[in-house]
Amino acid sequence: MAKKTVNFNKTGIEKLPNNKPVVYKILTEGGKNNYTGTAQRVRVRERLAEHLVDGKDFIPGSKVQIEQMKSIEEAREKESRILLRSDPKYNRQGK
Questions:
Q1: Integer distance in angstroms from the first to the last C-alpha of the chain?
Q2: Which one, of 43, 15, 18, lies nearest residue 51 by Cα?
Q3: How far, in Å, CA of 84 to CA of 51, rounded?
Q4: N or C: which end of the chain has fewer CB within 10 A?
């Protein structure tokens, strides 16, 4: 499905599609995966905004990469595979 990478800020997030569930990665300056998550259709931009500095679940990063999926179940399966492979720092319990 479609992939897109934008700057991890309000302006960048607004450029992302909101019409399908996604798996997203919040990336560091160097491209390392800091956090992986999923967001439901229609809630993609809202969920990512929660990770910004003034959001309720801040995660540091400079870029965000999304991949649209056919269903939220498919997104969660892909998220699990990514977490097993890359073990992002901020996905660990207690961050």
A1: 30
A2: 43
A3: 22
A4: C
CB-based contacts of 26: which residues, under 8 Å, 6+ apart?
8, 33, 34, 35, 36, 37, 51, 59, 60, 61, 63, 64, 90
49 has pLDDT over 80:
yes
| Contact (CB, 8 A) for 20 and 72 | no
Q: Scanning the structure block, which residue is given the tokens 């479609």?
A: 2
For the stretch 5-34, pLDDT in tens is 999 999 999 999 999 999 999 999 999 999
C-alpha span between 16 and 58 (Å, rounded): 19
**pLDDT(1) > 90:** no
- Domain locations in the chain? 3-86
The structure's pTM equals: 0.94
Is residue 24 within 8 Å of 48, Cβ to Cβ?
Answer: yes
Q: With H, G, I as helix, E, B as strand and everything else as coil, classify residue 6.
A: strand
Give the separation between CA 73 and CA 13, rounded to whole angstroms: 23
